[in-house]
């Protein structure tokens, strides 16, 4: 199963971001990808809340949804838009993954469950919960040949979500992201490999990378990790591009048979 991860450097111009995403998605399809995934906040990276809500749309009005639905149908490929920022009520939003099928229909949607509320030092602070509502539902979906679990970025630090998806049958888990450079350098690879090892799943992590128009700086280094924790493919930079990998889904069963830890949960008392 050939998959492609789209690495982007999305800015504040939605139309330009859609055009760049389309260019890279078409490039991936031309190279034989049968499943394509884009990063977190594909169509808009804007850290200024006032400017964000000047352009943010409700799902029914957002141009990106029919745009990507049409593209998935034209290419005949399942297409995961890693996430879109969408207005809900007032100045509140969700960070939502959308999975489109080969017919362009929406198969599944997932709202980021864990909000990135952190202080990294040197003036780099984030408070997603100030404007975004957290999701409260794990999502598993079918694509041709595989079961897919959906997560987004900061979710990767919460192993219970990945374990739950794997125990429900996920063979592939997606982690579209916009990791900061400090956390990316320190934690990106080790977290992705840990989630793959713990679950015996393929981990697909398409990323934002580089210095964005709004001043945010993201890590890039999109990555595919196999169920044994080996890095199958990685972009060793933060530039926009396409990462291809050929998945052997029999490795999922092999890894889970060798170390059947998904079957070994126990209820413990204390502390």
List the topology elements.
Elements lengths: L1 E6 L6 H17 L4 E3 L11 H7 L8 H12 L3 E9 L5 E8 L5 E6 L5 E3 L5 E3 L11 E5 L2 E5 L8 H9 L4 E3 L6 H19 L2 E4 L3 E3 L5 E3 L3 E3 L5 E4 L6 E6 L3 H9 L13
Parallel strand pairs: 1-2, 2-3, 9-10, 10-11
Antiparallel strand pairs: 1-16, 3-4, 4-5, 6-7, 8-9, 11-14, 12-13, 14-15
Helix pairs in contact: 1-3
Can you characterise this structure?
The protein is α/β, with parallel strands linked by helices. It has one domain (2-259): 4-Layer Sandwich (Nitrilase/N-carbamoyl-D-aminoacid amidohydrolase), CATH 3.60.110. The chain is 27% helix and 27% strand. It contains six helices and 16 strands. It has helices at 14-30, 49-55, 64-75, 159-167, 181-199, 250-258; strands spanning 2-7, 35-37, 79-87, 93-100, 106-111, 117-119, 125-127, 139-143, 146-150, 172-174, 202-205, 209-211, 217-219, 223-225, 231-234, 241-246. The strands form four sheets. The protein has a six-stranded mixed sheet with strand order 5-4-3-2-1-16. Strands 8-9-10-11-14-15 form a six-stranded mixed sheet, with helices on one face. It has a two-stranded antiparallel sheet with strand order 6-7. β9, α4 (159-167) and β10 (172-174) form a beta-alpha-beta unit. The longest helix is centred in the C-terminal third of the chain and has 19 residues, at 181-199. The radius of gyration is 18 Å and the shape is globular. The mean pLDDT is 97.
């Amino acid at each position: 199963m050939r998959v492609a991860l789209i690495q982007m450097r999305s800015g504040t111009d939605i139309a330009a971001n859609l055009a760049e995403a389309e260019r890279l998605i078409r490039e991936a399809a031309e190279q034989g990808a049968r499943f394509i995934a884009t990063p977190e906040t594909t169509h808009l990276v804007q850290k200024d809340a006032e400017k964000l809500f000047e352009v943010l749309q409700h799902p029914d009005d957002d141009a990106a949804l029919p745009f990507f639905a049409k593209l998935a149908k034209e290419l005949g490929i399942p297409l995961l838009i890693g996430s879109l920022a969408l207005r809900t009520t007032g100045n509140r939003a969700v960070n939502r993954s959308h999975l489109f099928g080969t017919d362009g229909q929406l198969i599944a949607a997932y709202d980021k469950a864990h909000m990135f509320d952190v202080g990294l030092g040197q003036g780099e602070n984030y408070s997603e919960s100030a404007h975004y509502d957290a999701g409260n539902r794990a999502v598993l979906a079918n694509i041709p040949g595989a079961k897919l679990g959906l997560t987004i970025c900061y979710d990767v630090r919460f192993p219970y979500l990945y374990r739950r998806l794997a125990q429900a049958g996920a063979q592939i888990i997606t982690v579209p992201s916009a990791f900061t450079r400090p956390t990316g350098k320190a934690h990106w690879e080790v977290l992705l490999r840990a989630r793959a090892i713990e679950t015996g799943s393929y981990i697909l992590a398409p990323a934002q990378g580089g210095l964005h128009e709004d001043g945010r700086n993201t890590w890039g280094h999109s990555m595919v990790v196999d169920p044994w924790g080996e890095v199958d493919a990685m972009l060793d930079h933060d530039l926009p591009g396409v990462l291809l990998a050929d998945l052997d889904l029999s490795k999922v069963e092999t890894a889970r048979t060798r170390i059947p830890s998904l079957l070994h949960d126990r209820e413990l008392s204390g502390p």
